[in-house]
Amino acid sequence: MPGALDGVRVLDLSRVLAGPWSTQILADLGAEVIKVERPGAGDDTRSWGPPFVEREDGHRDAAYYFVANRNKRSVALDISQPEGQAAVRQLASTCHILVENFKVGGLAAYGLDYDSLKSVNPALVYCSVTGFGQSGPYAPRAGYDFLIQGMSGLMSITGQPDGSPGAEAIKVGVATVDLSAGLYATIGILAALRHAERTGEGQHVDISLLDCQVSLLANQSQNYLVTGQPPQRLGNAHPNVVPYQVFAVADGHLILAVGNDGQFRRFCQVADIAALADDPRYTSNAARVENRDTLIAALKPVMAKRPAAQWTAQLEAAGVPCGPINTLDQVFDDAHIQARKMRVEMPLGDGDSHIPLVANPLRLSRTPPSYRQAPPRLGEHTLAVLAEIERHPDHTLSKDNE
């Protein structure tokens, strides 16, 4: 069955993670994605190893590259040269979407900026992903995930509280800024594509890593805007809900996530501390937040008496959310993850070798994501794509390829 975006063509001038994450989502949903890379080097992430994935033909790319580049065709073009610029311009004239993450103004020197390309394709949805956006005093700066985690305030609320062992601002263990920017880019692209389909008018989608991460501070930023007080690091505790954190248990650690007063009462019954649920200091979530320190001090020795499996079985039976802190081997061995088919295997070339990849989490009943091609070798499709341009040098979007 055709994918949701079957017939949509995407020109991907992005590299590393935020842009490629977005274009992979589009590709998984059926779009044709042409990835333009630098000859001889390619996407930066091809060299971001070890670990590396060895191909049957002797080529190897870092595992990092395989995260965000399946279902794409790779074309090696030198856009600093007139021939490369002309090829990109031709490709852009046939595409519905273009995604790039060059520094602000970087593509204007090559005549590949939005204003230049909309003259050859007025319906083009042109998405720019940068550290700080197309405007503002920081616009010329380069932006990287780690820097934005610090500048956005995310690291100021991540880590152990001041005065406790190991207290310092800590980054999140995955490039959450890049990934969230990729998701926002996809949302913006699809909204702009809908507008283009209705009106024939494309537009420039301006995605800033900093903007995206500031928006994702959610309740933490809203807490600050309401109170004027910057939130502090709480380790694994929650600023607005108690008890909602990690506890040491008899054989390790367990996450307890009590989200309402009814759950707290049931937790207290399971924990044999039912009287605590009637204590005026703890009867409501607001009271528990106010008296966090005394409540957590009372709960720690209680939680330490039973092993994680016993707590999990008893609390789940009572409808109290809880769960383990899994390592990645435990994640992919988990029966639920396996039932949801969150690991997929794709052929890696013409031989028998396969590459394991993380599946797209979207579940669509009629047009689900598909896995058509493993991440390509650098320039694997250059000749084929250039031949298409040669055969149709004046080709523009038409009903035949929509």
Automatic annotation (TrEMBL):
The keyword Transcription regulation does not apply. Keywords: Transferase. GO terms for molecular function: CoA-transferase activity. InterPro entries: CoA-transferase_III_domain (IPR050483), CoA-Trfase_fam_III (IPR003673), CoA-Trfase_III_dom3_sf (IPR044855), CoA-Trfase_III_dom_1_sf (IPR023606). This is CoA transferase. It comes from Parahaliea maris. The lineage of its organism: Bacteria, Pseudomonadati, Pseudomonadota, Gammaproteobacteria, Cellvibrionales.
